[in-house]
Design brief:
The chain is built from one helix and 29 strands. The chain is mostly beta strands and 412 residues long. The chain has a single domain, classed as Methylamine Dehydrogenase, Chain H, CATH 2.130.10. The protein has a five-stranded mixed beta sheet, with no helix packed on it. Strands 2-29-28-27 form a four-stranded antiparallel beta sheet, with no helix packed on it. Strands 3-4-5-6 form a four-stranded antiparallel beta sheet, with no helix packed on it. A hairpin with a 4-residue loop joins strand 19 and strand 20. The longest helix is centred in the middle third of the chain and has 4 residues.
């Protein structure tokens, strides 16, 4: 790909003009309150916990790991079950769920020991647990402690071969870091063993980046034959692939930091997600930032259709305050992806919430409102077809609003 960056500012916000609130047109989404008494709602995961072929909601809350049981309709309550509690003295921070053995039920790992100010002592910062499933999943699950770095922050499961999976764990800081400087963050892939109580072989993904706030994983080949990931960091978005039994950097593509004048000279990417099967990448910048950016490129391990195409970077919005959640998907049935971003602190219009953006549409800096009937200070966001009707619904957890909401998509 040519190193030609074409920057497009589609903003009508204070950077260029006043926000056009008249463009916040409501879409056909309806809120259901799953829980309005959570503590923080650090992280969400989606998967079938009980094997009833319905997707459930899992939550890493401040002191408890819980799951909400899918009732099979859009009106009944989602019953809450506690999986684990008080794993460490500090807060829980993240969760990953995926069916690894093909039995139709998810395996679950969680991160805890959230203490980002402590970067020297791993006994006081960071924790990684695998949760062993009980016979009855509504009862407590057994935590198995795994090795960890300081400041455990994000985790996701990745398939790296036929029947072979790794838990990718991304800390926020490197050992001894201060103000995002010092040693690079050590990102590990934990190889899922036959006996989860046994040894988990670890594979180093990278140890060069700083302020690694999130990660996106993709599997473009069958049985994990083309698995890649991109890490959002102070240095931008760097890509790695699982090749020849180890993680290797991909230097031919990356995600760029926004222009310094747009971020007040604060460099870095906070949230990152692929869109349109890797033909672009969406980011929130800087970490906990205000900018929503979309960048064209080849974010896949497949051969680029047009490797000489110029790279186009588009700023979709700057209305976020503490932007902290991002998903991409075709929520509107148009054949191409939209971007949904969430933020957790009131912005200039004193709003928190989530908004949908169409990457190719100009003049919609405010985004499209889904449903603001219940306030949502968004900490995390997931997309999944919870009711099996063929369209993507949205699931959000709210930090200051202390809630978990479903945004049911009424497209079909």
């Amino acid at each position: 790909m040519k190193n030609v960056l074409i920057f497009c500012l589609f903003l009508t916000s204070p950077l260029l003009a006043q926000t056009d609130t008249t463009r916040q047109r409501a879409l056909n989404f309806t809120i259901q309150v799953v829980d309005n008494q959570i503590s923080i709602g650090y992280g969400l995961a989606i998967g079938d916990v009980d094997g009833d072929k319905k997707l459930d909601i899992l939550l890493a809350d401040q002191k408890e790991i819980v799951w909400y049981q899918n009732p099979g309709n859009k009106t009944s309550p989602w019953k809450r079950h506690v999986m684990a509690a008080n794993l460490t003295q500090q807060d829980n921070v993240c969760i990953a769920a995926r069916d690894l053995d093909g039995d139709g039920r998810v395996e679950v790992a969680v991160g805890a020991g959230w203490n980002p100010a402590e970067t020297n002592d791993s006994t006081k910062s960071g924790a990684v647990f695998y949760l062993l499933r009980p016979q009855d999943p509504t009862q407590r699950w057994e935590p198995v402690r795994l090795p960890h770095e300081v400041t455990t922050h994000r985790m996701r499961w990745a398939q790296v071969g036929k029947g072979s999976y790794q838990l990718i764990v991304v800390p926020l800081h490197g050992l001894g870091n201060k103000n995002g400087e010092g040693r690079g963050v050590r990102i590990w892939g934990y190889e899922f063993p036959k006996d989860p109580r046994g040894v988990w072989k670890r594979h180093l993904v990278d140890s060069t980046m700083h302020l690694t706030h999130n990660v996106e994983i993709w599997e473009d080949g069958d049985n994990g034959s083309a698995t890649g990931l991109i890490v959002a960091s102070k240095e931008g978005g760097n890509i790695f692939q699982w090749l020849k039994k180890k993680w290797q950097p991909v230097d031919s593509e990356s995600a760029n930091n926004a222009l310094p004048l747009l971020t007040k000279d604060v460099a870095g990417i906070g949230e990152i997600r692929r869109l349109n099967k890797g033909r672009g990448i969406a980011t929130i910048q800087p970490m906990h930032g205000n900018l929503l950016q979309v960048e064209s490129g080849n974010y896949t391990l497949r051969k680029a259709a047009n490797k000489d195409a110029d790279k186009e970077i588009t700023i979709l919005s700057d209305i976020l305050n503490q932007g902290h959640a991002l998903v991409c998907g075709d929520f509107l049935g148009t054949g191409s992806d939209q971007v949904v971003a969430g933020w957790r602190n009131p912005n200039a219009d004193k709003n928190v919430g989530i908004r949908l953006f169409k990457p190719d549409e100009r003049g919609t800096v405010a985004g499209y409102t889904l449903d603001d009937s219940v306030r949502m200070a968004c900490e995390d966001l997931q997309a999944a077809d919870l009711d099996g009707d063929g369209d993507l619904d949205l699931i959000a957890s709210g930090r200051a609003t202390l809630n978990v909401l479903i945004y049911w998509n009424g497209l079909k």
